[in-house]
Structures are given as C-alpha cells and as structure tokens.
Design brief:
Blueprint lengths: L1 H18 L1 E6 L1 E5 L4 E8 L5 E3 L6 E10 L6 E3 L2 E4 L5 E9 L3 E5 L3 E4 L2 E4 L3 E6 L5 E2 L26 E7 L3 E3 L3 E10 L2 E9 L6 E5 L8 E7 L2 E15 L3 E5 L3 E9 L31 E9 L3 E6 L10 E14 L3 E3 L4 E11 L15 E3 L3 E9 L2 E14 L3 E5 L4 E5 L4 E5 L4 E6 L27 E2 L2 E2 L4 H29 L1 H25 L3 H20 L8 H10 L4 H19 L8 H19 L2
Parallel strand pairs: 2-12, 15-24, 25-32, 26-34
Antiparallel strand pairs: 1-3, 2-13, 3-8, 4-10, 5-8, 6-7, 9-12, 10-11, 14-16, 16-20, 17-22, 18-20, 19-20, 21-24, 22-23, 25-27, 27-30, 28-30, 29-30, 31-34, 32-33, 35-36
Helix pairs in contact: 3-4, 3-7, 4-6, 4-7, 5-6, 6-7
Amino acid sequence: MKTFFTLACLIFGLTISAQIKFSASSDYSTVPVNSRVKVTYTLSGGNAETFTKPSFDGFQVVGQSSYSGGGGMQIIVNGQLVQSSPGESKWIFTLAPKSAGTYTIGPAKVKVKGQTYSSNSVAITVTNSCGAVKSQGQTNYNTVQPDKNQPKPSTSGGKEVFMTAVPSKSRVYEGEQFTVSYRLYTRYDISQYGIEKTPSMDGFWTEELTDTKTAAKTWEETIDGKRFIVGEIRKVALIAQKSGTLSIPSLELEAIVQIPNQQNYNPFSIFDQFFKDPFGSSGIDPFAGFGTTTEKRKISSNPVSINVMPLPEQGKPESFKGAVGNFEIETETDRNKCFTGDAVVLRMKVTGNGNLPLIEYSEPGIPESFEWFDPDIIDDFNKTSDGISGTRTFEFLLQPTVPGDFTITPSPFSFFNPATGQYQSVELPEYKIKVLKGSGSNVSSEKMLNEDIRHIHENIPFLMLNSKMFSFSMLYWIIVALLILAASLILWYFRKRIQLKANVSEYRMRMAMRQAKRRLKTARAFLDQGKDEEYYAELSKALWLYLTDKFTIPFSELSLSNAKEILLRSNVPAEISEEFSKILDECEFTRFAPAAGRMSQKELYEKSADLIVKVQTHAAK
C-alpha cells in the first residue's frame, strides 16, 4: 500500500510538472561579430514568481524586455478588469557579441508555485564573416504585426507614453465604412489603465470591434531611435452619415505608469518587473520604491478629421436605397405552388462588406391579391479588424387569397462601390407562383371568379313586424342611421390613415411608442438569455430611435449633448429630460464595459421603459 501511494504521488507530480514548460531559444545560431542576436526564454503553464537570468559570457546585453499573455496589458473600465490574458510569459534579451568564438549560454531559472525550473542551454557561434544563420523553428515573439498600410507616428514628441488614433482612411464617401484604431505607445510598465471618456461620434454610425474577452494586440515599433511596445486598446468601425469635414474627438484614458528610477533605468526595458532582483543584488536602493515610481497619468489621443464626400448624382439608379460597399444578392422562394391562405416566403439575402447594418429593403412587385407584411430582418455579421461584413436577409411573408397563376418580381438591388466610384445594379429573377383554391377562412369570397348567382327566395321576407312591412318603419330608420354613421366612421378612419401614411414624419411620430415597445421587448429577450452585448446594443437602439421617430430628427444629428435640449423644447419637464440624458449616457457607457455598469441590467431596463412612457406622456401634451 505504501509503495502504491508513493507511485501515485510520483505520477501526480510528474503530471503537474508536465504542464509547466520553460525553454530557451535564439533567433540565430551563427552571427557575425558586429550583429545582434535575440535569446528568448518562454514559460507556459504557470506564472513566474522569480526569474534568474544566466551570465551571458561572451556577450553584452544591449536590450531586454518581457511580456505576458500577448502583451501583459490590462484594461480597466469602471474600476473592473475586463481584459486580461495570462497565457505564456517571455523574457527576451538582445545580445551583442564581444568577440568571435563558440559560446554556450547557460540555463535561466524561474520559480513557479515554490518549485524551481531550469531552461535548456543555447549554443551560438560568433564569426568574423558577414553571414548569419537562423535557428530552425524560431518565430518572432510578437504575435501581431501592425498594418503596414496605416500611418505610423513619425515622432513621439519626447514622450515615453502616448496614444494615437489611426483611421484606416481619411477620405471616404458618405455611407462608406472605415475603421479607427486607438494605439497606446509605451516604454514604461503600465500596470493598468481605464477608458475615462469615449468620444462622441457625431455624424457617424459606430460599432465596437474590440473583443473585451481577449488580450490587447501588441507589437513593437521604433520611433526616434527608441523602441516602443504598442497596444491596440480599442478599434471601432464607423460609417459617415453626412458629407463634409467631420471631426472625431480625442479618446481619454487614465493609466498607472511604473517609471523606473534613474539609477536603474534601462531604455530598452518595457515591462521590467520580471527582471527585478527581490534580494537587492542589482544594487537598487531598497528605500527608493524598489527602483520605480508609480504615477497616475491622463492620456489623450489626437483628434481626427475625416473628409466625407457626397455620393455622386450622376448615374444614380432609381432603385438605390443607400447601400454603400461591395455586395452580392441572392433571392429565392420556399415554394412555387400553394393553396389560398397558405404562406409563401420570399427571401432576399445581401452578402458583402460595407454599411450592412444600414441597408434597407426595396419593396418587391407583389400581386394585389396577395396579403403581405413588412419583412423580418435576419443579420449575421462578422466583426474583423477590417470592419463589419456578413449577411443581411429580408424574409417577406406572402399570403395569396385568390387562385390563379401569379408572378412575383423583386426590385433591382443597387449599391455604390467606393472602390470603383460607380453605382452597380443587380437585376433579380422573377418567380412564378401557382395558387390553388383552398378551404381555409382566408379565401377571399369577394374575389372568387365565376361564382353563381344565388336563388331568389319566393317566400315572404322575414323582416316583418306584427304583420306589417318592415320598410320605412322606426326600426328601419334606426338601422339606416346606424349604417350611415358606421360608414362615415369607417370612411373617416381610412382617410386619416391615408393622410397619416402620406405624411412620413407624422406617421413615425405616431408609431414611435409602438416601435420602442417592440425594441424593448427584444432587449428583454436578450437579457433573459444572458446575451449582454446584444442586450445593451438593442436597449441603446430603442432609446435613440425613439427620439428619432418621436421628434422627427435625423439619427446623424442626435448626440448626448443635444438630447436633453430636444426634450426640453418639446415641453418635457427638466427632471425627466435630465434623467433621460443620464440613461442614454449609461447605455453608451456600458456598451464598452457590460460587466461594470453603474446600475444593474434590470434597473437600467426598467428605468429606460419608464422614461419612454413619461416622455411620451408629456411630449404629447
């Protein structure tokens, strides 16, 4: 039994050890004297408590850096950690050979959970020739490379920590999609940072591309001869809603920066905590804050100006509905034969990249005897570093009421392609539908063809009171008056409805409350399903589009700064206007940090629904 227990402990220890790997590698196995070589120590499966570097005999250390989990950066929003990735840790030393010869760099050591692990040794041959031989199986430790097509800052302005906003394009068409990348440059260790203020994108439709569940993408850049670690902390897709020169304000964040003291400052050490000697053997004054000074800094990005060109009027087709990008369209029906009262589904699927979330449908040519409704919109979008792509599908539900042979003619789909600067139209095929007579209640008896004349009754009519004819009696005149009144009311109702639909803005005002309730219901469904990102997006959409519909203000002209003024001008009390503005700000704020909102999801939903009712009540007075 004792032997079995010992064997089990040994197997368990070997299993735990097998999960932790610590290795050394170099980018070159042979280098000339006047070159540089990088030696990388990689730890996976655990977090290092201490790191002991080897002596590097025969070389001079000219640079050192380290990172953890693809950058070692953390994003703190609202005081909560929303982005972190432990992953693997790496220590990278840049070495300059002192003289020719063959050198063996001894193993480095790390301590993980109280146990010490040693790496393998690395052999490097230094020659007097000019050729260098790469080590096999080596890859650069930067898992992400910057986009070479995007501009880089030409100078750091003498700053060791700064942030830039980099647009993918500075000149776009109205409705064209582009991206803005916010990049943090640092030569110091940043223990944490949080977004203080997101810019108000007036005139733009925006979509967040940053995945808060993964670590920030990082890479190296050299500016003014200095090496910086660059982290892409935020990326957004934007679609211009109006032409002209539009401005994107600065993004503001607050960072906690670890500034090395002058006595041990190494200009090549980016995240230096792995190299600190906990026992003070490096000569650091133990009373000098362990060699660093902690400083809280506010960092702002540069504002960006975008030149938005209007879409050309020349060559614009009548079927153009505002689609801008590169798209393909497919149409289909689920059947070509059915009975009266049955449903036929017409699908129109738009695929590509561009302003997909803003594409509207064109009304297809549907026979008058078909009843149909506004289509269901099904979105399947993909968020990538290049923006939003995917599909938007419109599903029309058609219901024939009369038998016969009919043709459904989808309208042509037109879009503007910014790459070519031209409009493109796609002609869609027609669909033949054969409708057979059914037995359901939805069959239209008034439109039935070849219906026989009914037989005239020869007996005395049943409308007779006390053996007297019903005509011109008191009851007769009452029924006539009621019929005239009913006909007048029906006529008045339909005339008002026609007038309301003719006045689009008035119709949208009347429908604002109904649409808001529908969107709130959708947001509630996302909340019950635990889909936080979709919940916040739908709730924010419900509030903003309610203001657009209720007060007939274009969406592109709405912002947090003028929402309160619009409500006050519409006789909404000041306290309700102020509360509505706060809820809009909260919705926008929690879209970027759903786990750290300033109020609970349920409370936010209930306040939003209550405020819409209050605004509807007061604004209607």
